[in-house]
Amino acid sequence: MNILVTGANRGLGYTLVKLGLEKGHTLYAGVRSLDQKPLKELKDVYEDRLHLIQLEVTNEDSVATAAKALAEHGTTLDVLINNAAVLEERDQSIEDLDIHACMKSFDINTLGPIRVVKCFLPLVKLGQKQAIVNISSNAGSLTNAYSGDYSYGLSKAALNMFSEKLRHNLKEDNIRVFSIHPGWMKTDMGGTNAQLEPLESAVGIYDIVEQKLEIPNEAVYIDYQGQRMDF
Q1: Alpha helices in the chain (DSSP H)
Q2: Facing residues of 221 across strands?
Q3: CB atoms < 10 A from the CB of 139, how many?
Q4: What pLDDT does 190 receive?
Q5: Looking at the domain that runs over 2-223, which CATH code has it been given?
């Protein structure tokens, strides 16, 4: 499969790229800067199947340029994974919340995936057994809402709505759409007290996109094990 992953330079994104290469897929690693040592080291090993793509999800011109470059090379995409995200204002009360930080969260966590899908969807429509994966969070659940994480939770809830709308839009194209809660992982964002290694989550996500897991009919918001989440 041809797979595009945004935010591919660290954490879950890097793990998805590395695991995908080990599985024999061709990976397009979307990063803000091409000067990424871990990805360069992977490039030395998987030269023909790893492509580093300069892509800034907050800049539509950057995303469109990246998509145009792939299209001009005749590239098609089977899986698009919107992974790039930020966690801002985690411990701030509503009284101390920085609205600019909230706007940044929406720009990256919600509008970023929208820009990427907007520009890369024509390449996905040419792929095989296609899937669009938006990396979400349990923080985006209204049913299980909790205090705090205002900017992150709101941006992920909006991402879930985007995924649901996208599912309806692409139903006739047979393109699967998922908002996946990857679990609490030991990454820069999740911290050292987290429960999961990124690899465990990445394995589950690949089981989903490779159709090794049976997903409940029309389920969009799921966890990395394929279980339905409550909106």
Answers
A1: 11-22, 37-45, 60-72, 99-105, 111-124, 150-170, 198-209
A2: 179
A3: 20
A4: 77
A5: 3.40.50.720
Helix (H) or strand (E) holding 82: strand 79-82
Mean pLDDT throughout 29-49? 94
Domain ranges, ordered by start, for the chain: 2-223
Radius of gyration for the chain, computed over Cα atoms and rounded to the nearest angstrom: 17
Query: What's the confidence (pLDDT) of residue 213?
Result: 94
Residue 135 has pLDDT above 80, yes or no: yes
What backbone torsions phi and psi does residue 175 show, to the nearest 5 degrees?
-100, 120
Residue with tokens 């799921």: 222
Long-range residue pairs from 200-206, CB within 8 A, at least 24 positions apart, any chain: 200/224, 201/12, 201/15, 202/12, 202/15, 202/16, 202/19, 203/19, 205/16, 205/81, 205/133, 205/180, 206/16, 206/19, 206/20, 206/23
Catalytic option among 14, 28, 46, 152: 152
The tens digit of pLDDT for each residue in 79-97 reads 999 999 999 887 889 999 9
Active site includes 152?
Answer: yes
